[in-house]
Design goal:
30% of the residues lie in helices and 23% in strands. The protein is an alpha/beta fold and 471 residues long. The protein has two domains: 300 residues, no CATH class; 31 residues, no CATH class. Helix 3 runs parallel beside helix 5 and helix 8 packs parallel to helix 9. The N terminus is likely disordered.
Length: 471
C-alpha cells in the first residue's frame, strides 16, 4: 500500500510517497527538456549540502553520530533548506538509505547520490592507490563493482532523484604508464580521458540495467572533453558539470544541446563570499552572482532559450572551514585563496588567487557545542535564492518578460542588515557564555583546642575544615 504525506513548502506543496522508490525520467519535446519525478516536472533547486562542525575536516561524518544527534542536526538544517526553497541535495554513498528516505518523507527534499568513481583514489587489493589509473583493468573492475554496489544500496529508496558519477575526474588524469608515455606529450591527456569516459559510458549502461527508475548524470569539470563524452557515453541521460564561469555560463547550454542532445544540470556552481583584493567578507557580491546565475538558468529552461537547463546544485550550503589546508588551522576561517579565475572580476588580480574555498557558503557557521551542533547565519545569497525560486519556470504564464521582471526585483542589499544583525547576535551569544577550565577543589581538615568552650576552664578538642576552589 502507498501512503502519502502532504508537506507544505511555503506557497508550494508536494505529495511524498513513503515506502516506494520514485520514478524519474527525462522528457524531450519541441520546447526542450523536462525532468519528471513520478510524472510531474521537477525543476532542481539543489544544494551541495554537508554537515561539518568547525574544527573538523573531511574525516568527520554526521552519519557516524548517534541517531539523536543526527536527527537534531537534520531538523535544524533541513528546516532552513526548506525555507530557502531547496528541493534536492547532493550526497555521497556514505549516507544511510534510511536517512535519505527520512529527509524525503519529512521535508520533501530529494537526494542525488554521487559515487566518486575513484576521483580521490581508491582501494585496490587492500592497498589505497591515491592516483586512479582508468586504463588498468583491475581498477576498472573495482570501480564498477563499487558503483553498482551503491546502486543496489539506494535504487529502491524513496527520495533518490538521480545518479551522479564522479567529481571533476577529468582534472585528475595524472597517472603514467608505458602506453601513455609512448604517446606524444600533447596526446597524453586525451588518451587518459578516453579511458575515463569509456568507463563512465560502461557505468551508465550498467546502472540503466540495474535501475531503470533513475537517470544518470556526470559531474564533469566544465565541458572539457565533451566530444569524447559524446563518443564514449552515448546513453548518458543528463550532462552535469561543475562550472565557475562568473555571472553567466555563456554558450554552455547551446554547446551541450548541439554536442550531446541531453538536458543540463549544474553539479556545482556559485560564488564565494570573500573579496580577496580587499581582504574582507563580501556576501553581497556573492548574492549578485547567484542571482545572475539563476537568471541564466531560467532563461534556458524548458520553453526558454536553449530549453535544456533543468536546474542545479549551488556550491555550497555553509562555509567549509577545513578547505584551505585540510589538516591544519581547522578552527580558523582561512582567508587564503587557493585558485584563480577572471570570471569573478571584482577581486581578480592578474597573477594572484581570488577564489576562497572556505567562504562559499550561503550561510555562515557558528561554533559547535559538545555534540557538534551549531547555528547557521543566512547570508544575502540565501534570501536571493529563496526569492528567485518562488517563480515557477514551468508555469503557463512564465515568459521571458516575467522572468526578467522577477529577477530584476530581487535586491541583495535588502538582506545585508538581516545577515549582519543575526551574525552580531550570534557573536554576542557566544561571548555571553562563561568558559571555565582547570577547576581544582582542595579540602583541609585540622584539629584545635578551645578552653572557653565549657566555660569552666577546661579544654575541648574540636575538628575544623576548609574548602578552597581554584579556577
Amino acid at each position: 500500500m502507498t501512503r502519502f504525506v502532504l508537506i507544505a513548502l511555503g506557497c508550494m506543496s508536494s505529495q511524498v510517497a513513503w515506502g516506494n522508490p520514485n520514478h524519474v525520467t527525462v522528457k524531450q519535446d519541441e520546447a526542450g527538456y523536462l525532468l519528471l519525478m513520478d510524472g510531474s516536472p521537477y525543476f532542481v533547486r539543489g544544494m551541495n549540502w554537508d554537515y561539518l562542525p568547525i574544527g573538523e575536516n573531511y574525516r568527520y561524518s554526521l552519519w557516524n553520530q548517534p541517531d539523536e544527534v543526527i536527527e537534531t542536526a537534520l531538523r535544524r538544517e533541513l528546516g532552513l533548506l526548506r525555507e530557502a526553497g531547496v528541493n534536492s541535495i547532493r550526497q555521497y554513498p556514505d549516507i544511510p538509505p534510511r536517512w535519505v528516505e527520512w529527509i524525503w518523507v519529512n521535508y520533501g527534499i530529494s537526494t542525488m547520490i554521487n559515487p566518486l568513481v575513484g576521483r580521490y583514489g581508491t582501494e585496490i587489493d587492500g592497498r589505497f592507490v591515491p592516483v586512479t589509473d582508468y586504463s588498468d583493468p583491475t581498477t576498472r573492475a573495482v570501480l564498477r563493482a563499487q558503483t553498482l554496489e551503491a546502486v543496489e544500496k539506494f535504487k529502491d529508496t524513496p527520495g533518490v532523484l538521480m545518479w551522479l558519477l564522479g567529481n571533476e575526474n577529468n582534472y585528475g588524469l595524472t597517472w603514467s604508464g608505458f602506453e601513455i608515455q609512448n604517446l606524444p606529450e600533447g596526446e597524453r591527456d586525451a588518451a587518459r580521458a578516453r579511458y575515463l569516459y569509456s568507463l563512465m559510458g560502461e557505468l551508465v549502461d550498467a546502472i540503466h540495467a540495474a535501475d531503470p527508475n533513475h537517470p544518470v548524470a556526470l559531474a564533469n569539470g566544465d565541458l572539457q572533453y565533451i566530444d569524447l563524452i559524446k563518443e564514449e557515453c552515448p546513453n548518458l541521460d543528463i550532462m552535469g558539470s561543475n562550472v565557475y564561469r562568473g555571472m553567466t555560463a555563456r554558450d554552455l547550454y547551446q554547446v551541450v544541446e548541439e554536442k550531446l542532445g541531453v538536458p543540463f544540470v549544474y553539479s556545482e556552481f556559485g560564488a564565494d563570499a570573500y573579496d580577496a583584493k580587499a581582504g574582507r567578507e563580501d556576501h553581497l557580491t556573492q548574492a549578485v552572482y547567484l542571482r545572475s546565475q539563476w537568471l541564466d538558468i531560467y532563461n534556458n529552461a524548458y520553453g526558454q532559450g536553449a530549453g535544456n537547463a533543468i536546474g542545479g546544485y549551488v556550491f555550497q550550503w555553509s562555509d567549509g572551514w577545513w578547505k584551505y589546508k585540510q589538516e591544519e588551522n581547522l578552527d580558523i576561517h582561512d582567508s587564503n585563496a587557493s585558485w584563480s579565475t577572471g570570471a569573478y572580476a571584482e577581486d581578480f588580480v592578474e597573477g594572484q588567487f581570488n577564489m576562497n574555498e572556505e567562504w562559499f557558503g550561503i550561510t555562515a557557521k557558528g561554533p559547535p557545542d559538545a555534540q557538534g551542533q551549531y547555528e547557521l547565519f543566512p547570508r544575502a545569497g540565501f534570501y536571493v535564492l529563496r526569492d528567485a525560486w518562488r517563480l515557477d519556470p514551468y508555469a503557463p504564464d512564465t515568459t521571458a518578460e516575467t522572468i526578467q521582471t522577477h529577477f530584476a526585483a530581487i535586491d541583495p542589499q535588502v538582506y545585508d542588515r538581516s545577515y549582519k544583525s543575526a551574525l552580531a547576535i550570534g557573536q554576542l551569544d557566544t561571548l555571553s557564555k562563561a568558559y571555565v577550565s582547570n577547576v581544582r577543589m582542595e579540602l583541609s581538615t585540622f584539629g584545635t583546642t578551645d578552653s572557653t568552650a565549657t566555660g569552666q576552664g577546661k579544654e575541648r578538642f574540636t575538628v575544623d575544615h576548609l574548602e578552597s576552589f581554584y579556577l
